[in-house]
Write a structure and sequence with these properties.
Blueprint (H helix, E strand, L loop, with lengths): L4 H8 L3 H8 L7 H13 L6 H8 L6 E6 L5 H16 L3 E6 L4 H9 L5 E5 L6 H9 L4 E4 L8 E2 L3 H14 L4 E7 L4 H15 L5 E7 L3 H13 L5 E4 L2 H14 L4 E5 L4 E5 L6
Helix pairs in contact: 1-2, 1-3, 6-7, 8-9, 10-11
Length: about 280
């Protein structure tokens, strides 16, 4: 374990300020004292905290990207955050996470004063006009992730294409009673997927479409799908988010009395499950 400057100062019998000046190669320290402090630092295996030095010099913010999001509720967020962190680290950048939560205005105002190298706004909702002006006043570049915003830099899934593809998959599997299982918050991503999904379903005669909204949670989806399948109300399901599909598939396994299909987005992978009918 590396020593601290406090331990070096105590061993050398000098003040913290003197040790700090020596370690930062500053003047106004006698040569004999300087040599003594450097020798003790070496003996105690002292290594400077680079992050602390960057903060003092003001260079930390120049190599730091802020990630702003309203909440972290399931593994999708963690996986994306991990990917961002790994990429930034490989480019020698740091990452700070800001959770807007219940005090969005306060957090955005604080972020605008941080003078960061850039900002990533992850998910809903978008910046208001006044919030955007605060960010732009500091000349801080920003981008939206997992959201389309006109006249702004964005990285997002093609939600319309995903919804259409999911509908085509379920129709191909001969499903005739299809359920769209979405979240109660009605985000931009969900609305776009549901819209294209419903439009594609409407092109096929004899196919019934329903929608149901629940909290985006594995257990909620699990019990919802058990109920739906036991009542024989559904033979095909499109889950808005993968976390819902995981619970939904478990519910389908336990409660399926008919063939059952779950299409998952945004994984862009579609899983088909056929269950034997109970006698």
């Amino acid at each position: 374990m590396t020593a601290t400057i406090k331990e070096i100062a105590k061993t050398a019998g000098v003040g913290l300020g003197t040790v700090s000046r020596v370690l930062n190669n500053q003047p106004y320290v006698k040569d004999s004292v300087r040599k003594k402090i450097l020798k003790i630092a070496k003996e105690l295996n002292y290594h400077p905290n680079q992050a602390a030095r960057m903060l003092v010099k003001g260079t930390y913010k120049q190599t730091t990207i802020g990630l702003v999001l309203p909440f972290i509720t399931h593994r999708f967020f963690f996986e994306v955050i991990e990917g961002i962190y790994i990429t930034l680290s490989s480019l020698k950048y740091n990452m700070l996470i800001f959770n807007t939560g219940q005090s969005r205005e306060v957090v955005i105002e604080h972020i605008s004063k941080e003078n960061l190298a850039g900002l990533i706004f992850f998910g809903d909702p978008p910046l208001t006009e006044s919030e955007q002006k605060l960010i732009e006043a500091q000349n801080t570049p920003f981008i939206y992730l997992d959201r389309y915003q006109e006249d702004a830099n964005c990285i997002y899934f093609d939600n319309f294409a995903g919804g259409k593809q999911a509908a085509g998959y379920l129709i191909e599997k001969k499903c005739r009673n299809i359920l769209f299982l979405g979240g109660i918050n009605h985000t931009q991503q969900q609305n776009d997927r549901q819209s294209s999904f419903k439009d594609e379903i409407s092109k096929s005669s004899g196919v019934q479409f329903r929608k149901r909204y629940i909290p985006v949670d594995e257990k909620e989806a699990y019990y919802c799908l058990i109920e739906e399948i036991k009542e024989k109300r559904v033979d095909g399901v499109f889950c808005f988010a993968d976390v819902m599909a995981i619970g939904g598939m478990a519910g389908g396994c336990l409660g399926a009395l008919v063939s059952f299909v779950v299409a998952i987005f945004p994984l862009i992978i579609f899983f088909g499950f056929a269950f034997l009918q109970k006698k």
